[in-house]
Every structure is written in C-alpha cells, then in structure tokens.
Amino acid sequence: AGLMLGLAASGNLVQSYSNILRNLFGLASGIILIMMIVKIITQSKGVKEALENPVVASVFPTLSMTVILLAGYLKPLSHEFALILWFIGIILHIILMVWFTKQFVMNYNIKKVFPSWFIVYVGIVVASVTAGAFEMQAIGKIIFYFGLTSYFILLPIVLKRVYVIKEIPEAALPTLVIISAPASLCLAGYLNSFTDRNMVMVYLLLIISQITYLAVLLMLPKLLKLKFYPSYSGFTFPLVISAISLKLTNGFLINTGNSMAFMKILVNIEEFIAISMVVYVLIRYMNFLL
C-alpha cells in the first residue's frame, strides 16, 4: 500500500516532464490497488489478523490516500466519477482513522507508537493537495488544519518513541523515513488549497520539512543496508512528497518575486532521489513477490 501511494505521487511529481510517464506511474499504482482489493476480499481473515500489528494498521490508510490521489488521474476521463472516488477515499480514511483511534489510541502504549502514526492522522491532508483539481478548496482547508494540528500533537510523541524509548524492531526501521513526510504534505496541501497564502506559514513548513528531510537522508544509507522488509514502502512516498512540496514552494516563490536561485537545483536533486527510490523499492518488491 505504501509503494502504491509512492507510485501515484511519483506520477504527479513527473507530470511537468512527461504526461506519459505520469500515466505509467499511475497505472502501476492502479494495478497494485486492484491486487490489494482482491486480497482484502479473498483473504479477509488474514488481512484482519495483520491489522492487529500496530505498524501494519498505521500504514494501511495509505490505501485510502492512494484512492484520493488516483481520483485525480481519472478526472480527464470522467469528472463526476473522479469526484465520487475522491470523496470515497476521504470517507474511507476517516473510517480507518476512527478505527485506529479505537484500537490503538484508546489502548495507548508508547511502544506501539511508530512514525507511521503520522499516516493515520496527517495522511488525510493528501485531500488538501488534490482539492484544487476538484474545486473543493473549502474542504481542503478544513482537512489541512486538522492535519497540521495532528502533526504538532503527534510530533513530540513520535520523537520520544524514536529517540528516547527506541527499541524499534528491525522490520519497522524503514518507517523512520516517514518522519520527513508530514510537514511536506502539509506544505503541499497549504499551497494547493489556499489562494491567500501566509508567508510565515509557508516558510515555517518549508524549514521544518527540509530539516526533517535532511535528517532522514542521513539515516537512509544505514536503513538501505537492512534486508528487504515490506516496510521498505516507507522509502517511497515521504521522499516523493518532500520533492513535490519543494517544487510547489519554488513555483510559489518565483510567482511572488521571492525566488532563490539554489531552490531549482535542490528541487532537481530531491526529484532524482525520490524517483530513484520509488523505482528501487518497486524492483525489490517485484523480486520479493516473485
């Protein structure tokens, strides 16, 4: 599911270069979505058991996030169907959020907290990123504020779990990369849902997103030495959304006369890292499944 989300987001990242390439990424994501739906229907007992694991349960909402993103791909074919799908993704995410809260927050245990908790509560901001495409900016704004509030509530809890409590199982270590995603997702959501942008908000989210991105980059060489785990999916979407948010910010700063020369180079570097990692994880997954 995480890889599927990374592929869908990668398509949006490369859209400015090639619409064909965008559609290839979207198609790959759609194929995985169909495979997942088939598995959920045919192996429902196994899926239910897997969701008892806090890491699996907290990563699972990447499914609804992907539905929200893929709705954008279908908009040129049918605006009405795409909009319905967009709302289905949001409703599904809210259902998963309520279920997760009941299962793991009501029975709180710091050792069951992982960076993937950000997916559950901040992940819905992907609707703010795509709200403009459906002229649903009002909903995008509400979701942005919910996601931003959730991020600042969760951040100290997750940082305490990672840096103070530690003891994260090896199979869950790739989820550490998710730390770089929430601020970038909120930044992209803010730029796409708000027409009257506050420069303080833009710069605040830009600084936080780039600091967390740099922290993750420093971890990455060590994490890539781990043997393959399905949690390798954590290497995809966080790096992609970091590149997307920086690209959107660069465009915004140019349009407002606040451009910085080095930003374009930084955007290209982050784009290259993101796409390389998504393709790498896709290949590792194919080898794993075969």
Largest sheet: none
Described by the principal axes of the CA atoms, the overall outline is globular
End-to-end CA span: 17 Å
Portion in helices: over 70%
Estimated radius of gyration: 18 Å
Low-confidence stretches: none
Mean pLDDT: 95
- Total DSSP helices: 13
Please identify the structural class as seen in this structure.
mainly alpha
Number of strands: 0
The topology string of helices and strands comes to HHHHHHHHHHHHH
Strand content: under 5%
Please tag this protein with its features.
0% strand; 290 residues; mainly alpha
Task: Chart the SSEs and their pairings.
Layout: H1 2-14, H2 19-42, H3 44-50, H4 54-59, H5 62-74, H6 79-105, H7 117-122, H8 126-131, H9 137-165, H10 181-193, H11 199-223, H12 237-255, H13 261-289
Helix pairs in contact: 1-2, 1-5, 1-12, 1-13, 2-5, 5-6, 9-10, 10-11, 10-12, 11-12, 12-13
